[in-house]
Amino acid sequence: MPRTSPKRNSKIFVLDTSVILYDHHSIMNFAEHDVVIPITVLEELDQFKKGNDIKNFEAREFIRLLDKLSKDYMIHDWTPLNGKNKGNFRVLMNPDNKLNANDIFGEEKNDHKILNAALSLKQTESGRKVILVSKDINLRLKAKSLDIYAEDYETGKIKNISEIENTGKKIVEGIDPDLISSLYENHIMDAKEIFGGKRKLIPDSNTFFILRGPSPNISILAFFNVEDQTLQKIEKSRAYSVSPKNAEQAFALHAILNPKIKLVSIQGVAGTGKTLLALAGALEQRRDYKQIYLARPIVPLSNKDIGYLPGDIKSKLNPYMEPLWDNLKFIQHQYLEHDKEYQKITEMVNQEKLVIQPLAYIRGRSLSNIFFIVDEAQNLTPHEVKTIISRAGENTKIIFTGDVFQIDTPYLDSQSNGLSYLIDRVKEHPLYAHIKLEKGERSELANLANRLL
Fold it and tell me: Where is each PIN domain found (predicted)?
């Protein structure tokens, strides 16, 4: 087929490998503008195409997409992106520039080859704005030092992180003491009765409330059920010997134990009890589910693959799974060794009724009749979170825990990680509840670190 001509007033976006590994569909998200893929990116993707991790999936899907789009074209020519008002794309071979990033930075690296591609386009596509798109902050800084426009990949990013912070809990002052007493006695009331003329306080999502009367000693914890528009009294119940130590923990445990809530996210800094509450709630409901899964993403030490670690696969994974075992042991040691609750946990582990494993070993499986806890969810991409939830079958409950400000992966931040994405996208769904834990309960020493260091 004949080659297409790009629009002269459109921009050219040069995609880095990190963007494609984050979202294989990214090439389609630049409106009417043109997209360039440096040949170095394809070479890097070739190294990622084998494996079970999400980056391997993204690499494979992008390669298939590129193959489909270029079916009737030579990809070094401008090739149309299928879809209304879409631009074109091309793969750029290694250019021979007068200005060479390898020479400037004193080292030959793939990143510098990608920079060279952008430099070449600035020369050959004069009059058009060339923009490097990368999730790698350092590469963006290097690009700007070479007078190349550079930006993060924005698709899927949360625009206002403060909305994530404010989701889940509200404090309302000045509630009539008689209404608080009535809710305390009846356990459930129509929200309109409680709020009366303050109906604007009625939220659009499942929300936890601290309702206070005229004096501070008159208060009650309540859950607003968006489906039936009622306020329900929250009891500070125990779960497998674990008791909530503050209002937010009581809210979190209520959501975990509520059979009508199928999806829960718990946000909070280290030591606030996120994983402990989720695990205790799972054990309390062990008879209602076939298995309990605990999983967390593997973030390799010093950005090295786990293959660098010694031993078999179990030995390699143990360091990453140890925090989950620590929480399980803490719950177990609330009991004596001869207590049936202590022995039940050991039995569940031995019989694989309670399974701790990395997420890579869960993808592709059908999760029916499962209580599934995903720890450190801020280290997941939005696509990974979607993949996990889409595997849920009948009678499955999923709990995501994490801290959106404590990210260990290099190409995610507080606005682009999977946990923030989840909270933002599903906050108004009746099957979902979210709570932020604010007070550290691990120890005074841990609280000192969170506050002052």
Answer: 11-141
> Which residues are 295's β-sheet partners?
374
Alpha helix (H) ranges present in 339-417? Answer: 340-350, 382-390
Residue of 256, 266, 290, 280 whose CA lies nearest to 367: 290
User: Across-strand partners of 193?
Assistant: none
Range with the poorest average pLDDT among 131-145, 188-202, 326-340, 392-406 = 188-202
3-state SS class at 91: strand
Spatial separation of the C-alpha atoms in residues 298 and 409, rounded to whole Å: 10
- 3-class state of residue 171 by DSSP: strand
Q: Which two tokens stand for residue 411?
A: 């190409």
Domains and CATH numbers, the chain: 12-151 (3.40.50.1010), 159-234 (no CATH), 245-452 (3.40.50.300)
- Report the C-alpha gap between 62 and 49 in whole angstroms: 10
Q: Is the pLDDT of residue 142 over 50?
A: yes
User: Residue 240, SS3?
Assistant: coil
Q: Length of the chain, please?
A: 453
User: Is the CA virtual torsion 409, 412, 413, 414 positive or negative?
Assistant: negative
Helix H or strand E encompassing 435: strand 432-437
User: Residue 113: what are its φ and ψ, rounded to 5°?
Assistant: -65, -35
What angle, rounded to 10 degrees, do the helices at 340-350 and 313-332 form?
Answer: 160
E-strand ranges in 50-154 read 79-80, 88-92, 130-133, 149-151
Reported as a pLDDT band with limits 50, 70 and 90, residue 151 is: very high
Tokens of 71: 């079916």
**What is the SS3 assignment for 402?**
strand
Q: Side chain identity at 15, as an amino acid letter? A: L
Per-residue tokens: 75: 């990809």
Q: Which parts of 114-250 are beta strand (E)?
A: 130-133, 149-151, 169-172, 188-190, 207-212, 219-225, 230-233
The contacts of residue 374 (CB under 8 Å, 6+ apart) are: 295, 296, 359, 380, 388, 398, 399, 400, 401
Distances (CA, A) of 114 to 72, 108, 134, 151, 434: 26, 11, 10, 14, 41
Whether 436 and 248 have beta carbons less than 8 Å apart is answered as yes
Strand partners, 221: 210
> Average of pLDDT values for 242-256?
94
